[in-house]
Specification:
Layout (H helix, E strand, L loop, with lengths): L1 E2 L5 E2 L1 H6 L4 H28 L2 H18 L5 H22 L4 H6 L1 H12 L10 H8 L1 H12 L3 H18 L4 H22 L7 H17 L20 H5 L5 E3 L10 E7 L5 E6 L1 E2 L3 E3 L5 E2 L12 E9 L12 E5 L7 E2 L5 E2 L9 E8 L4 H5 L7 H4 L13 H10 L6 H15 L1 E2 L10 H7 L3 E2 L1 H14 L4 E7 L3 E4 L2 E5 L3 E9 L3 E5 L4 H17 L18 H8 L5 H5 L3 H4 L5 H8 L2 H9 L20 H21 L1 H12 L7 H19 L9 H11 L5 H14 L5 H17 L2 H5 L1
Parallel strand pairs: 14-15
Antiparallel strand pairs: 1-2, 3-7, 4-9, 4-18, 5-16, 6-7, 8-11, 9-13, 10-13, 11-12, 16-19, 17-18, 19-20
Helix pairs in contact: 2-3, 2-8, 2-9, 2-10, 3-8, 4-7, 4-8, 8-9, 9-10, 10-11, 11-25, 16-18, 17-18, 19-24, 20-23, 23-24, 27-29, 27-30, 29-30
């Protein structure tokens, strides 16, 4: 603030910002783009959980308010207003999630822990009310950044927006490209603001380039920070395998293109009944992956089971390799053994180990089996409990789900009179209309829609994903489950489970019964691939394919195969809720299971043939440089070059080089003078610089009196004096002076002398 000639108070910042020169417009555009970069990330989140319209409307309102208030309130008032906006937004979030403001104030430590978890890699989509969280997070930084930008305080305007983007980088939600764009816009805002202030001078351009490169490197490096619960991966289920795809971490399950299957044994199970061995449950669909929302809680000795009083079965699981999961028949209600002492349980009732299991680890599982009659499921109705409808994402569809997808789902279920009939109709439709293959190209859009409308074949993750989304389009609660099919039965009640058996299926909720498993993946093709892959691995002597008890057990059983051929009704398997697992004679998947864990639908892991084989060259392993990596490399070079210029490193290197090398020779007098200057620098480095007012002869005399100076320096000095003050020197004298200095320099650089 200041006063004008009439004594009126004038806001200097505001007056300076009124002009609309090109640099101001560019600076404002950069601030707007910075705000847009983090809003874009939040938009990606809200597109999954709904609420994009509210988010964009809220941010737009903040920008309008900031523009209007920029001429009415001071920066302190604006900062306070932004804080109030954030507090109100998060208060609404806390109330909407059922926590409540009072409870939140009483649990400040928990909130700080959650914030820390977000800042160390917990994705926003893991939060139960991610959409509401974005509404609380977005408005404050947007308002303050734009307010400061309108007032011409561009450097400060970058701070709120930059903080918001940095936080999203820490959570892992902001990718490389958007981070680069946001960072570039932030630096651009500061740079153009500086140009506006200096009237177009680019004197500080090198400094801005250094800062720019440093911020990019730092902002991208923070994504490597460890997350709250990154989760262990399946052992042996690396990139390119089905295991590696569906369970890269316990909080997410990916959907990729072509995959391979590993024939190696993962674990063995002794169980009273055949079953799928579930390892993950996911509720939130992001279009190209599944995400488990909600926190993990420490296992306290029991897990909530399904409603009613279902029968229970016991299993004994032994790890045959490292495992980052706790396989067991759904629904697990109890665990015992050293590996589960510090286990955690998701909000969906799925246990996860705190530490990776190693070969030989054993634990016991008690599971409540949901095995209702089809008529019971038809009569279950749709009176769902709140935790299924109101407090979860079991009906969630991405916001960009097309009306065509919803209409097509309605057509498939048009003749269904109950939710159970609708589930069976979708299951049958997918099994009969789509082929099975592990060699598919990953879709670029919504996987469920792409598979339904554009693809002729796929594997388990495609079938299960599409069925869940079609059910949700019909307002039937459903979720995506992963794990392993039953595996190869090597003795009565003893199963060997391999990487081939990794699988994904569907669970549908029925009131008074709980979650019932459905199998939309066709069993025959996957069974064939599974058998072929296992047989090939045995013939090739692949390590880890068998344990001692399974080596002599045939891959398939002709009798069981005959029985499975006679069973054409895939839905009967689902009637029991444990579908193809419980009774091999009841369903097509079971029959497959019968024969040899083929049934599991592992076919789907089945045998991605030789793709990604360990033998020979795999073109998928070719290292490529992405556009983002290239951009980062170029920016790093720009920053390095600017840093070198800013620090004067180039000039120092050039001077150092010239100290040891005279360079091209021209006029003898100039060469003599240059040789002496090189000599002075050598002497200054070894003894002391020449003082102001001290002649060259006085300088050398003083050094000779105090130090043992090479007498050849006198000859160089005399040559310099003749070239400067006398009648000049000839070529021979100049060359002699140059040679003396070269020799003195080489003596101080032994490596160069030897060379």
């Amino acid at each position: 603030m200041s006063t004008d000639s009439r004594g009126r108070t004038v806001d200097v910042d505001l007056e300076r910002s009124v002009g609309a020169g090109p640099f101001r417009l560019l600076a404002l555009a950069c601030v707007a783009a910075l705000i847009g970069s983090y809003v874009w990330v939040l938009r990606e989140v809200t597109q999954v959980v709904g609420g994009t319209g509210s988010l964009l409307l809220l941010v737009g309102s903040m920008l309008v308010a900031a523009t209007v208030l920029a001429r009415a309130i001071r920066p302190r008032t604006a900062t306070a207003a932004a804080i109030v906006v954030v507090v109100v937004g998060f208060a609404y979030y806390l109330e909407a999630t059922g926590v409540g403001v009072d409870a939140a104030l009483a649990a400040t430590g928990t909130i700080l822990d959650d914030t820390a978890a977000l800042a160390t890699g917990l994705p926003l989509l893991r939060m139960v009310e991610a959409g509401l969280w974005t509404l609380g997070f977005a408005p404050g930084p947007a308002f303050l950044s734009w307010y400061l930008a309108v007032r011409g305080r561009y450097a400060l305007a970058v701070v709120p927006g930059g903080f918001a983007l940095l936080f999203l980088v820490l959570t892992g939600d902001a990718g490389t490209t958007i981070t680069l764009v946001g960072t570039a816009c932030g630096i651009g805002a500061v740079g153009f603001g500086e140009l506006e202030r200096r009237g177009g001078s680019v004197a500080q351009a090198d400094l801005l380039a250094v800062v720019f490169a440093a911020i990019i490197v730092l902002s991208l490096s923070v994504t490597i920070l460890p997350g709250e619960d990154g989760g262990a991966t399946f052992s042996g289920g690396g990139d390119g395998t089905l295991e590696g795809t569906i369970d890269t971490a316990d909080e997410q399950s990916g959907i990729s293109g072509q995959v391979d299957l590993s024939p190696e044994v993962r674990f063995t199970v002794e169980s009273e009944e055949r079953s799928y061995w579930r390892t993950g449950v996911y509720d939130r669909f992001a279009g190209d992956e599944w995400i488990r929302s909600g926190p993990l809680e420490e296992y306290d000795g029991s897990i909530d089971g399904p409603p009613g009083d279902p029968e229970t079965v016991n299993q004994h699981v032994t790890a045959q390799t490292e495992l980052g999961v706790l396989p067991g028949a759904a629904q697990q209600v109890g665990l015992e053994g050293p590996p589960v002492r510090h286990a955690e349980v998701s909000a969906h009732g799925q246990p996860q180990p705190a530490d990776t299991l190693v070969e030989g680890d054993e634990y016991a599982v008690e599971s409540a089996i949901v095995d209702p009659d089809p008529d019971e499921l038809r009569a279950a109705g749709a009176d769902y409990p709140d935790h299924v409808i109101d407090d979860s994402d079991y009906l969630q569809l991405p916001e960009d789900t097309s009306s065509e997808f919803e209409e097509y789902s309605a057509e498939v279920t048009a003749d269904a009179e109950t939710n159970y009939d609708a589930a069976v109709a979708i299951e049958q439709y997918l099994r009969s209309s789509k082929g099975y293959s592990l060699e598919v190209d990953q879709p670029s859009g919504n996987v469920a829609e792409e598979f339904l409308f554009e693809m002729d074949e796929g594997y388990c993750v495609y079938f299960a994903t599409s069925m869940v989304q079609m059910l949700r389009a019909e307002e039937i609660p459903a979720r995506y489950a992963t794990g392993y099919t039953s595996g190869q039965e090597i003795d009565d009640g003893e199963y060997v489970v391999r990487g081939l058996d990794a699988h994904a299926w569907v669970e549908v909720y029925f009131p008074d019964h709980g979650w019932v498993a459905f199998e939309p993946t066709p069993g025959d093709a996957r069974e064939d691939e599974h058998n072929d892959r296992l047989e090939e691995a045995r013939e090739d002597g692949h390590d880890g394919v068998d344990i001692e008890e399974s080596e002599d057990v045939p891959i398939s059983d002709d009798e069981d195969d005959d029985e499975s051929e006679g069973n054409e009704e895939p839905n009967e398997s689902d009637d029991d809720g444990q579908a193809d697992d419980d009774d091999p004679n009841d369903t097509e998947p079971d029959d497959a299971d019968d024969g040899a864990n083929v049934d599991d639908g592992n076919g789907d892991d089945g045998a991605s043939a030789d793709a990604g084989s360990d033998d020979g060259f795999d073109p998928r392993e070719v290292v490529t440089i992405t556009r983002e990596q290239l951009a980062i490399g170029l920016l790093a070079l720009v920053g390095l070059a600017a840093g070198v210029r800013r620090t004067g490193a180039t000039r120092r290197v050039r001077r150092e080089f010239r100290l040891y090398w005279h360079g091209r020779r021209g006029d003898p007098d100039e060469d003599a003078q240059r040789a002496y200057r090189r000599l002075e620098r050598l002497l200054a480095r070894e003894y002391r610089p020449r003082r102001r007012g001290e002649s060259s002869r006085q300088y050398l005399s003083a050094l000779s009196a105090a130090e043992s100076v090479d007498p050849r320096t006198e000859r160089v000095a005399r040559c310099y004096e003749r070239a400067t003050y006398g009648g000049g020197v000839d070529r021979e004298a100049a060359d002699e002076a140059i040679e003396i200095v070269d020799e003195l320099a080489r003596e101080r650089l032994p490596l160069l002398d030897r060379f």
